[in-house]
């Protein structure tokens, strides 16, 4: 997506999240942070254990999870 459409998508997701459960798939940490909320990480075909949200997890936490580590 171009930057303007990406911002529009972020706004739409945030608006819908107030009244819906959304599943968003991304491999961009910036996008994961923009959506705010609980986060799940799929690493090596397995759902990684995550305690936190996009607001509380650091980039290092997320990178370690994506590489198959634990948080």
Descriptive account of the structure:
- With 71 residues, the protein is mostly helical.
- It has helices at 3-17, 29-35, 59-66; strands at residues 41-43, 46-48.
Strands in their spatial order, largest beta sheet? 1-2
How many β-strand stretches? 2
β-sheet strand percentage: 5-15%
Structural class category: mainly alpha
Uncertain parts? none
Give the H and E element order: HHEEH
**Helix residue percentage:** 40-55%
**What's the story with the biggest beta sheet?**
2 strands, antiparallel
Radius of gyration (Å): 13 Å
Characterize the quaternary organization of these chains. Answer: single chain
Number of helices: 3
Shape annotation: globular
First-to-last CA distance: 30 Å
What average pLDDT do the residues reach?
Answer: 79
Summarize the structure.
The chain is mainly alpha-helical and about 70 residues long. The chain contains 3 helices and 2 strands, in the order ααββα. It has helices at about 5-15, 30-35, 60-65, and strands at about 40-45, 45-50.
Name its key features.
mainly alpha, 2 strands, 3 helices, globular, 71 residues, single chain, two-stranded antiparallel sheet
Secondary structure layout plus pairing:
Blueprint: H1 3-17, H2 29-35, E1 41-43, E2 46-48, H3 59-66
Antiparallel strand pairs: 1-2
């Amino acid at each position: 997506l171009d930057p303007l459409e990406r911002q529009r998508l972020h706004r739409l997701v945030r608006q819908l999240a107030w009244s819906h459960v959304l599943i968003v798939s991304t491999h961009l940490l910036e996008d994961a942070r923009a959506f705010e909320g609980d986060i799940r990480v799929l690493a090596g075909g397995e759902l990684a254990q995550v305690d936190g949200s996009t607001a509380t997890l650091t980039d290092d936490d997320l990178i370690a999870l994506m590489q198959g580590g634990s948080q």
